[in-house]
Amino acid sequence: MSRNMTLQKLQYAVFALLSLVATTDAFAVSPIEVQTIQLDSQSIAANFELDGAIEAVKQSVISAQISGQISSLEIKAGDQVKAGQLLLIIDDREVMAGEQKAQAQLIQAEAELRNARVNLERTRQLQSEGFVSKAALDTADTQYKAALGGRDQASAAVRQASLAREYSRVTAPYDGYISETMAQAGDLATPGRPLLILYAPSPLRAIVHVPVTLTNAVKEGGKVEVLVPDVQSKQHWVVPVSKQILSAADPIAQTITWRLDLPTDDVRGLVPGQQVRVRFTGTAAKRPVIPASAVLRRGELTAVYVAGKQGFVLKIVRLGHDFGAEGIEVLAGLSPEDRIALDPIRAGLSGARPLANPASSDTSKP
C-alpha cells in the first residue's frame, strides 16, 4: 500500500515536471514579432511658427572718447532726445590744459619757423655773393624745412586738442530714445567705455533664430509673416519689407539668424526687446519621414531599429523637424530600402523579428 502511494506521487511529480518543461519550451520558441514600416518620402510643406524679438535697426552704444570725470548727466533711461541734444558733460579741465599747452607749442614753432626763414634768406644772399659755401646754404634750407614740419605738427596738435574739448560734451547723433544709461555723475569716463544706449523708434525689425534643418525649406519661395499689435491693441500678421539671412549658423544652438525689416506703418505699437510671433510657410518638398513612436532616445542618442537578416539592428540617425502627424524628418542614417520597427522597445528584446507583413506608411500615422 505504502509502496503504491509512493509510486503514484512519483508519477505525479514526473508529469508536473514534463508539463513545466513543455511550457518553458513553448515560451522559448514563441517569437517576438514587431511591426515594421518602409522608409518613405512624403511631400510635406514646412509650416511652423517661432518666437522672435524686436530690435531697432538704428541703435548706438555711445561711448566716451576722452578721459575725465562725468560732471553732469543730463538724461535718464526712457527719455526722448533730439539730434544734437546734450546728453552728458565730462570734466574738460585736463583737456583745456592740454589745448593751452598745444597752443603754446604752436607759438614756439611759428617763432622758430620765422627765424629759420630769415636765416635761409640771409644765407642764400650771402652764398650768391660768395661769402658762404653751398654747404651752409644746404644747412639753412634743412633747418627751415625742419621748422616748417614742426609748425605743422604743432598746428595739428592744437586741432586735436580742440577736438578733444568738443568730446567733453556728448550729444545725441540722431532723434531717438535712451534705452539704458551705464554711467552716473561722478563716474570716471575713459575712451571706449560705454555710457548709454540710444535707439531710433523707427524702423524696427524682428530677429528670429531658425533651426538649420528648416532654413532651406523656407529660404526659397517661402512666406514669412510677423504677428504685431496695431493701435487698437489688436494683433495682425504683417509681411516684412525685406529680410536678411546670416550666412553662419550658431555652432551650439544650430540656428541661423533671420533679420526681418518691418513696415514703418506697422511698428507704432512695438518697442525693442518685445517678443513677437513669426510664421513661416514653406513650399512642399519630398522629405523622408518616420513616425515619432519609432524613435529610440537614450540621453543624447537618437536611433531606430532596422530589420536585418538576424532580427533588428540599431542604427544611429540624425533627425530634422517634427512635422507632427506626418512624422519626423530623417536627415541621415537610413537608406530608402530600410524597414524600421514601429515599436523600438519590443524590437530591442532578444529574439525579436520583423512581422511578415510590414505596415504601409499611411497606416502607421498616428
Automatic annotation (TrEMBL):
GO terms under cellular component: efflux pump complex
GO molecular function: efflux transmembrane transporter activity
Keywords for this protein: Coiled coil, Signal
InterPro entries: MdtA-like_BSH (IPR058625), MdtA-like_HH (IPR058624), RND_pump_MFP (IPR006143)
Domain of life, per lineage: Bacteria
Coiled coil among keywords: yes
Keyword Signal: yes
Domain Multidrug resistance protein MdtA-like barrel-sandwich hybrid, residue spans: 62-195
Domain Multidrug resistance protein MdtA-like alpha-helical hairpin: 100-168
Signal peptide: 1-28
Coiled coil regions in record: 99-126
Family indicated by similarity: Belongs to the membrane fusion protein (MFP) (TC 8.A.1) family.
NCBIfam families found in the cross-reference section: RND_mfp
Protein name: Efflux RND transporter periplasmic adaptor subunit
Species lineage: Bacteria, Pseudomonadati, Pseudomonadota, Betaproteobacteria, Burkholderiales
